[in-house]
Each structure stands twice: as structure tokens, then as C-alpha cells.
Amino acid sequence: MEARKIHADMIKVRNTFVTPVLVDFAHRHGVGIYAWGAENLSDMQDMVDMGVDAIVCMFPDRIPVRSRGLT
User: Fold this and answer.
1) Please, are residues 32 and 10 in contact by the beta-carbon 8 Å criterion?
2) Residues near 46 by beta carbon (within 8 Å), at least 6 away in sequence
3) Domain map of the chain by residue range?
4) For FRET with 46, which of 24, 29, 57, 66 sits at 20 to 30 Å CA-CA?
5) Whole-number Å distance between alpha carbons of 15 and 6
6) CA distances, 59 to each of 4, 26, 35, 37, 44 (Å)
7) How much of the chain is in helix, strand and coil states, percent to nearest 5?
């Protein structure tokens, strides 16, 4: 994974490009996924369900936080 070659420990990905396969692949290589662009509750819930490590958005109070430690 290219991110590991440059010693990155996370990458930011627009929410429309986040998939369960991407999240799993990144996590298997020790890279976190920070999703951005999810501004409605449905999109945020999708990101949480896929296991992203963080959601970067304009409305952080809307993020459906679960016990898995989402920041």
C-alpha cells in the first residue's frame, strides 16, 4: 500500500469513495480511513457501519458515535 511506503498512518477519503473493501484493505495494512464529505445522517451512518476511523464533517454533533471508538 502506497500510504505505508511514505509512512502515512491514515488517509482521508471522500465518503463517496469509501467501501468496506477499502476500509478492510487499509486496516489490514495498518492505515486508518478518515472519511470526509458525509454531511447527512444516512451517509454518516454508512461510514460508521463500514468501520471508518473518523468522520471529518461540518456537523460533528450529528455523527452517530458507537462504542468502537469513532472520533
Assistant:
1) yes
2) 15, 18, 38
3) 2-62
4) 29
5) 23
6) 30, 25, 13, 10, 10
7) 40, 20, 40
Distance of CA 36 to the CA centre of its chain: 8
Q: Rounded distance, CA 69 to CA 6, Å?
A: 26
- Give 12-69 pLDDT, tens digit per residue: 999 999 999 999 999 999 999 999 999 998 999 999 999 999 999 888 887 776 534 5
Report d(CA 71, CA 55) in Å as an integer: 7
How far apart, in whole angstroms, are the C-alpha atoms of residue 37 and residue 29?
A: 24
Residue 18 and residue 41 in contact, taking contact as beta carbons nearer than 8 Å: no
Residue 1: predicted pLDDT = 64
